[in-house]
Amino acid sequence: MAHVEIGQKIKEVFDSRQIKLTDFADELGTVRQNVYRIFRKRHLDTGLLLKISQVLHHNFFQYYVETPKGQGDNENVTQLKHEASDYRNQLELSKKEVDYLRKIIKLMEEKSELIQQMEGKVSF
Hints:
The protein has 124 residues and is an all-alpha fold. The protein has helices at residues 6-17, 21-28, 32-40, 46-56, 73-121.
């Protein structure tokens, strides 16, 4: 397997995306100085690499995997598109669930306020 300078690859993709360094750092939940450190890294934690892949919309894990014989780039692209579609669907479902839960919370808060108002009016 070829040696991968992952920080350098991340820097190349970052430069091609024309994103402000501050915005990139914010999306990663870190500061600019840490982004510069990432660009110099030879190895990264997979969780961080996943986050960077998501923010830059680039699969950095591909540099660690050898393509099996007989499997071309078109198959990889098709598979990635399928996975991206699945993730989009999961995201949409999650958004709907969050909206639903927010509505439930709002209703519960309104009910709580009504109960408190009723208790305030009823005195023995």
